[in-house]
C-alpha cells in the first residue's frame, strides 16, 4: 500500500512538521516563560530559550499564592469523586448490562441529555439546592456534583466492559449458591479492573480540570481548587508576574499529565472499546 | 430443554431468563444494585435540570427571600429585545461553527498522517493527546502567554517574518480577538476528535484499500470511495457532538478574555453566567439556557435524521 513517491513522502513529512509545531509551540512557550528571570521577561525582544535558567518562579508561585494548599484541596476533591463515582457505577453498570429493563434506556437518554444541556440550566438550581441543603461552599456539595456529572460516561464505559464478561461465569457462581452481590463482588469486579481504571481515571481528571462548577459553588479561599486559584492569579499581570503564573500552571498540569501518561493506552482503549460497541 | 437442543437460541439472547417484573423491569437484586447510583443522579442532575427549565419561565432573582412568580413567556420577549442576547448567539454560532469545522479538518489530516508509517509519529501522537490532559484554565493561561503583546512568542515570530510591523494585542483587539480565541478552541479540542477519527480509520479494512489500489485508484479516489464511506457515521456523530460542546463552552474563553473586548467574545454561556451570578437574574439566565436548548435541538434533529437516512440505506 505504501508505494509513495518521494514527493508525496516529503509532503507528508512537511504536514507532520506543521502539526508538530502547532501542537508543541504553546507548550514550549509555557515552559520557556516559567524558566525565565524577571529581567529576561521584560525584554522588548523576547528570547526563545532562556539565557539564564531559573527556578525562582516556582518558588515565587509557591510562596505568594496558596498553590500547595489548592493542590492538596484538588487532590482530595478529585480523589474522593473518583472513588465514589467508581463505587456507585460498578453495580449500576452491571444492572444496565445484564437486565433488559427500562433503566438502561433511561440511563442512555440521560447520558445524552447530560452531554448536550447548557450548564447554566443545571448550575443555577444546583447552587440554590446546595444552599438550601447547607452544602454550598463545602467539599461534600462539590464532590456530589462531580460524581453525578462524571457518572454518565463512567456508566457507559463500564457497561461495555461488563458486556465482554461471559455470562456463563455468573451462572456458574449462582449455581454454586452465591448471591447477586457476592457474584458481583467476587466474579465480575475483578474482571472489570481495566474498565474501572479507565472510568476512575476519567472521573479523576474531569474533577481535577473542572472550573465552572467550582467557580459557582466554592467561595471560601481556603477551599479553592487549583483552577480557581490560577484564575485569581491572572488578575495582576505585570510582565514580571508572568514567570510565576507559568510556573504555577505547569505544576497544575503535572498530576493529570502523569495520570494520562500512565493510562494513555488504557484510556484510549476504553474510549474506543465503548465507541465501537454502541 | 429438548426443544433447545434442536434449535439453540441465538447467542445474542443470552440475557437471563425474564425475572418477575417490578419497578422499571428490575427485580429486588437489580434495584438494590442500581439505587445507590440512581438517588444522587435524581437529586443532583435530573431535578436541577427540570427546575432549571422551569426557572426560565419565572422571574427568579438572587436574594434569599425573593418571591418567584411564573411569568410565562415574558423572559423570552425580553430576550428578543436584548441586543446582547443576539450578539452572544451570533458570536456563539460563529465560534461553534468555526471551531468545529477547523477542528474536524485539522484532526482528519492529523489522523490520516498518524495512520501511516511515518517517523516521529509517536511524538505527534503523544503531543496530540497532551491538550486532553491539561485543565482548560491552564490552556487559557498558556495561550495568554503566547498572545501576550510584549512578552508573547507570536508577535515575536510574526515581527521576525515581517508579517506584522508592530506588536498586536491579540486578545484585546476588536477585530482579532474572536479569531484568536477560535484558534485556541481548535488546539484544545483536537485530541478527542483525532482519537475518534483515528479509530474510525483503523477500522477500515486494509484489503479494501489494497484492492482499490490494484484497480488503479489514486489517493484521492481511495479516500473518497473507500475511507470516507467507512468513517462517515463516526464523522457525523463526532461533529454534531463537537458543535454542541463548543456552543456550550465556557472555561476556555472565560480565562482568555472574560468575554471581552467589549463583548466581542461573549459566548452565550458567558452571557448567561454574568446574568445569573453577577446581576442575580436567575430567571432570565435560565431562559437564555432554554433558548440555547432550542439551537442545540435543531442540531440533534439534524443528526437523528442523518442516522435514520443511513439506516434506511
Automatic annotation (TrEMBL), chain A:
GO terms in the biological process aspect are: transmembrane transport
> What is the originating organism of this protein?
Jiangella anatolica
Note the PANTHER family from the entry: INNER MEMBRANE ABC TRANSPORTER PERMEASE PROTEIN YCJP, MALTOSE TRANSPORT SYSTEM PERMEASE-RELATED
| Major location category of this protein | membrane
Q: Where are the transmembrane segments?
A: 12-31, 75-96, 108-130, 136-158, 191-218, 238-262
Q: What membrane topology is given?
A: Multi-pass membrane protein
Instruction: Report the sequence similarity comment from the record.
Output: Belongs to the binding-protein-dependent transport system permease family.
From the Swiss-Prot or TrEMBL record, give the protein name.
Sugar ABC transporter permease
User: Is Acyltransferase set as a keyword in this record?
Assistant: no
Keyword Transmembrane helix tagged: yes
- Pfam families (UniProt xref): BPD_transp_1
Domain ABC transmembrane type-1: residue ranges? 71-263
Please provide, in alphabetical order, the Gene Ontology terms of the cellular component aspect for this entry: plasma membrane
Q: Where in the cell is it found?
A: Cell membrane
| Sorted UniProt keywords | Cell membrane, Membrane, Transmembrane, Transmembrane helix, Transport
Top-level taxonomic group: Bacteria
UniProtKB/TrEMBL annotation, chain B:
Pfam families attached to this UniProt entry: BPD_transp_1
Q: Name one GO cellular component term.
A: plasma membrane
Q: Which UniProt keywords apply?
A: Cell membrane, Membrane, Transmembrane, Transmembrane helix, Transport
Annotated GO biological processes are:
transmembrane transport
Enumerate the subcellular locations listed in this protein's record, separating them with semicolons.
Cell membrane
| InterPro entries hit by this protein | ABC_transporter_permease, MetI-like, MetI-like_sf
Q: Where are the transmembrane segments?
A: 30-50, 93-114, 126-147, 167-188, 282-304
Topology in the membrane? Answer: Multi-pass membrane protein
CDD domains (UniProt xref): TM_PBP2
Residues forming the ABC transmembrane type-1 domain are 89-305
Q: Major location, coarse class?
A: membrane
- Similarity comment: family membership: Belongs to the binding-protein-dependent transport system permease family.
Q: What is the name listed in the Swiss-Prot or TrEMBL entry for this protein?
A: Transporter
Species, as recorded: Jiangella anatolica
Amino acid at each position: 500500500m505504501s508505494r509513495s513517491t518521494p514527493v508525496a513522502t516529503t509532503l507528508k513529512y512537511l504536514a507532520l512538521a506543521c502539526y508538530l509545531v502547532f501542537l508543541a509551540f504553546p507548550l514550549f512557550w509555557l515552559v520557556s516563560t516559567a524558566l525565565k528571570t524577571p529581567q529576561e521577561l521584560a525584554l522588548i525582544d523576547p528570547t526563545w530559550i532562556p539565557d539564564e535558567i531559573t527556578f525562582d518562579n516556582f518558588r515565587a508561585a509557591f510562596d505568594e499564592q496558596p498553590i500547595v494548599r489548592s493542590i492538596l484541596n484538588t487532590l482530595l476533591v478529585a480523589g474522593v469523586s473518583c472513588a465514589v463515582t467508581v463505587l456507585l457505577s460498578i453495580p449500576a453498570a452491571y444492572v444496565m448490562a445484564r437486565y433488559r429493563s427500562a433503566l438502561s434506556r433511561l440511563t442512555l437518554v440521560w447520558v445524552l441529555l447530560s452531554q448536550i444541556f447548557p450548564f447554566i440550566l443545571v448550575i443555577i438550581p444546583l447552587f440554590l439546592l446546595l444552599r438550601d441543603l447547607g452544602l454550598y461552599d463545602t467539599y461534600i456539595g462539590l464532590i456530589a456534583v462531580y460524581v453525578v456529572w462524571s457518572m454518565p460516561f463512567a456508566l457507559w464505559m463500564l457497561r461495555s466492559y461488563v458486556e465482554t464478561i461471559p455470562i456463563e461465569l455468573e451462572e456458574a457462581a449462582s449455581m454454586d449458591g452465591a448471591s447477586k452481590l457476592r457474584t458481583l463482588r467476587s466474579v465480575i469486579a475483578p474482571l472489570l479492573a481495566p474498565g474501572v481504571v479507565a472510568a476512575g481515571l476519567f472521573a479523576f481528571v474531569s474533577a481535577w480540570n473542572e472550573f465552572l462548577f467550582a467557580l459557582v459553588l466554592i467561595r471560601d479561599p481556603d477551599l479553592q481548587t487549583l483552577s480557581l486559584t490560577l484564575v485569581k492569579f491572572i488578575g495582576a499581570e505585570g510582565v514580571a508576574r508572568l514567570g510565576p503564573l507559568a510556573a504555577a500552571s505547569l505544576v497544575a498540569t503535572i498530576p493529570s499529565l502523569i495520570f494520562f501518561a500512565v493510562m494513555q493506552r488504557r484510556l484510549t482503549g476504553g474510549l474506543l472499546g465503548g465507541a465501537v460497541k454502541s | 430443554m429438548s426443544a433447545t437442543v434442536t434449535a439453540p437460541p441465538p447467542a445474542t439472547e443470552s440475557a437471563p431468563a425474564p425475572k418477575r417484573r417490578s419497578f422499571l423491569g428490575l427485580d429486588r437484586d437489580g434495584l438494590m444494585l442500581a439505587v445507590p447510583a440512581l438517588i444522587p443522579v435524581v437529586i443532583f442532575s435530573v431535578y436541577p435540570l427540570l427546575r432549571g427549565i422551569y426557572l426560565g419561565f419565572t422571574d427568579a432573582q438572587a436574594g434569599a427571600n425573593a418571591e418567584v412568580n411564573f411569568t410565562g413567556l415574558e423572559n423570552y420577549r425580553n430576550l428578543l429585545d436584548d441586543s446582547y442576547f443576539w450578539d452572544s448567539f451570533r458570536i456563539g454560532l460563529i465560534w461553534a461553527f468555526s471551531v468545529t469545522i477547523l477542528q474536524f479538518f485539522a484532526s482528519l489530516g492529523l489522523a490520516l498522517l498518524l495512520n501511516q508509517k511515518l517517523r516521529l509519529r509517536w511524538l505527534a501522537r503523544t503531543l496530540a493527546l497532551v491538550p486532553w490532559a491539561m485543565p482548560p484554565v491552564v490552556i487559557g493561561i498558556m495561550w495568554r502567554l503566547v498572545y501576550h503583546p510584549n512578552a508573547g512568542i507570536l508577535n515575536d515570530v510574526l515581527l521576525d517574518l515581517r508579517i506584522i510591523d508592530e506588536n498586536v494585542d491579540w486578545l484585546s483587539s476588536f477585530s482579532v480577538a474572536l479569531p484568536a480565541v477560535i484558534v485556541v478552541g481548535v488546539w484544545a479540542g483536537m485530541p478527542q476528535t483525532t482519537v475518534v477519527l483515528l479509530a474510525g480509520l483503523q477500522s477500515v479494512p486494509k484489503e479494501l484499500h489494497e484492492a482499490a489500489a490494484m484497480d488503479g485508484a489514486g489517493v484521492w479516489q481511495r479516500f473518497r470511495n473507500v475511507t470516507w464511506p467507512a468513517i462517515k457515521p463516526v464523522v457525523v456523530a463526532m461533529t454534531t457532538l463537537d458543535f454542541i460542546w463548543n456552543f456550550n463552552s465556557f472555561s476556555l474563553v472565560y480565562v482568555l478574555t472574560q468575554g471581552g473586548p467589549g463583548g466581542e467574545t461573549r459566548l452565550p454561556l458567558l452571557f448567561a453566567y454574568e446574568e445569573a451570578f453577577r446581576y442575580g437574574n436567575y430567571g432570565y439566565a435560565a431562559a437564555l439556557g432554554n433558548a440555547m436548548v432550542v439551537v442545540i435541538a435543531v442540531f440533534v434533529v439534524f443528526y437523528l435524521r442523518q442516522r435514520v437516512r443511513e439506516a434506511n440505506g
